[in-house]
Design a protein that fits this description.
The protein has 476 residues and is an alpha+beta fold. The protein is built from 17 helices and 23 strands. Helices cover 28% and strands 24% of the residues. Strand 20, helix 12 and strand 21 form a beta-alpha-beta unit. The structure holds guanosine-5'-monophosphate, iron/sulfur cluster and magnesium ion (MG).
Length: 476
């Protein structure tokens, strides 16, 4: 069953530390926002790989005795989020397999766009798959390579896959990190402070907030198209793939990454704040206060308030303890919905003209409830401001967005969306606003396909004709 397609994930690896699994555990904690469905750690003690994976949050899956069993001087980890159809332990990573060259484990963030094609080819050759995810084909391709060294097998495998990948591999004695030539998903390298011997103290992670937690120094990004090998001899960089104009996911800045991370070399918080400032410049409004939709809208609201000179207030308060176990009320008490997560403060909102800032509108259903809630708390006017362009298309590169049909901006004008959510006015940051400070050239070296429909890599997935149709209709 090809049951998993879209998934967003956090990956991490630690090479050369006696408590590698513990450090990976902490790093996964820092990256929990990148995936809450399942998590796993694989460690290497020089002889064998040891693995533990489970469903749910990092804190629920790993207990002290489990971490203690994950012995060794290196370990990799993974947090996974995916759409509901594939909520299965078999899809949890890291994947760990034995092959003719030894044992290897892998953590993958991203989506391979030629997955279906590759999997069909491998299955018709008699290969058996354990999971429904695209990541597993990489392990098959590694096992099939005739190369001696793992790093050469990895390069051979990656030469056949297309699309988005930030990867960490672990064998009994080495760790390898790789990022696709487009640089779709982030990946950084750091070093544990005080570790100076060549084979010690290396950390790779999706975001720098993981480095901060384990007290590792940020060194640099894994470059697009780069493969890095960590061995007892230290870190060695390979550039096996021709450089490609980068198409780094701009949505990491808009929503996905943690604001305290550095992504693509910039502070996510500062970028979001600047997006808010640009939004205030392009969509000013006469109002009394600026409030964010917490947490995602906070940095942009700070920027909007700063630029507009309006006071920043917390008109909506978030309950941080709403987890996946929350039971949605049925029928008669159904419409509590968003109130469980957010509560509007009458003391702040009553009699005010309010600017509400959020990072994006996806389906529009949450935004609609928020506008109603703010009005019910006594706001005179509600002006919705969004710190990114309208989300008009799905992501094929590793972010879990709903299908095109479900995205309100794919079929509605801005004024229709305004009417649907019930706001007095609605303003989105323009494409130009997005790139006015982010980078050189029209796209700044970013992928923005979910906003613009310009998909940098085609999906060769004949099970998804709607997606194919989408590509045909777009200029590239
Ligand atoms: P909507 O009004 O579309 O129902 O919800 C908008 C909210 O969804 C915004 O607060 C935005 O931060 C959030 N959001 C945007 N993209 C994503 C995503 O990929 N995953 C999740 N869980 N929330 C998202
Ligand atoms: Fe990021 Fe959107 Fe491109 Fe996906 S389509 S990689 S979410 S910018
Ligand atoms: Mg949000």
């Amino acid at each position: 069953m090809l049951d998993s397609f879209h998934e967003e994930c956090g990956v991490v690896g630690v090479y050369g530390h006696p408590e590698a699994a513990n450090l990976v555990y902490l790093s996964l904690y820092a990256l929990q926002h990148r995936g809450q469905e399942s998590a796993g750690i694989v460690s290497a003690d020089g002889q064998v790989l040891l693995s533990h994976r489970g469903m749910g949050l990092v804190a629920d899956i790993f207990k002290e005795d489990i971490i203690r069993r994950l012995e060794g001087f290196s370990a990799i980890g993974h947090n996974r989020y995916s759409t509901s159809g594939s909520t299965l332990l078999k899809n949890a990573q890291p994947f760990c397999v034995d092959y003719v060259g030894g044992a290897v484990a892998l953590s993958h963030n991203g989506n391979l766009t030629n997955y279906v094609e590759l999997r069909r080819r491998l299955e018709s050759d008699g290969r058996i798959f354990q999971s429904g995810t695209d990541s597993e084909v990489i392990l098959h391709l590694i096992a099939m390579s005739k190369a001696e060294r793992l790093v050469d097998r990895v390069v051979a495998a990656l030469g056949e896959v297309q699309g988005a990948y930030s990867l960490v591999f672990l064998s009994e004695s080495e760790m390898i990190a790789a990022r696709d030539p487009y640089g779709f998903r982030p990946l950084v390298v750091g070093r544990l402070r005080g570790q100076e011997r060549p084979g010690e103290g290396w950390v790779v992670a999706s975001e720098t907030c993981a480095l901060d937690l384990v007290d590792a120094e940020y060194l640099r990004e894994v470059e697009p198209g780069e493969v890095i090998e960590f061995t007892a001899a230290g870190m060695k960089s390979y550039r096996p793939f021709a450089p490609h104009a980068p198409t780094r996911c701009v949505f990491e800045y808009v929503y996905f990454a943690r604001p305290d991370s550095r992504v693509y070399g910039r502070s996510v918080y500062q970028v979001r704040k600047e997006l808010g400032r640009r939004l205030a410049q392009s969509h000013p409004v006469e109002a009394d206060i600026v409030i964010p939709v917490p947490d995602s809208g906070v940095p942009a609201a700070v920027g909007y308030a700063e630029q507009s000179g309006l006071p920043f207030e917390m008109g909506l308060i978030r309950n941080h303890y709403v987890g996946r176990t929350f039971i949605e009320p049925q029928d008669s008490i159904r419409h509590f919905g968003v109130k469980v997560k957010l509560n509007a403060q009458r003391e702040v909102l009553e009699g005010k003209r309010v600017v509400v800032v959020d990072d994006s509108i996806v389906r529009g259903t949450t935004s609609r409830k928020i506008v109603t809630m703010v009005r019910n708390a006594g706001a005179l006017e509600v002006h919705m401001r969004i710190s990114s362009p309208p989300t008009t298309g799905p992501c094929f590169y590793g972010v879990d967005t709903p299908t095109r049909k479900e995205l309100i901006a794919s079929s509605h004008s801005i004024d229709e969306i305004r009417a649907f959510i019930g706001a007095d006015t609605l303003g989105y940051l323009s494409e130009r606003g997005l790139y006015s400070f982010l980078g050189e050239g029209p796209r700044g070296g970013f992928c923005d396909a979910c906003f613009t429909g310009r998909y940098p890599v085609l999906v060769s997935d004949d099970e998804q004709p709607i997606q194919l149709h989408l590509f045909e209709a777009k200029d590239r």
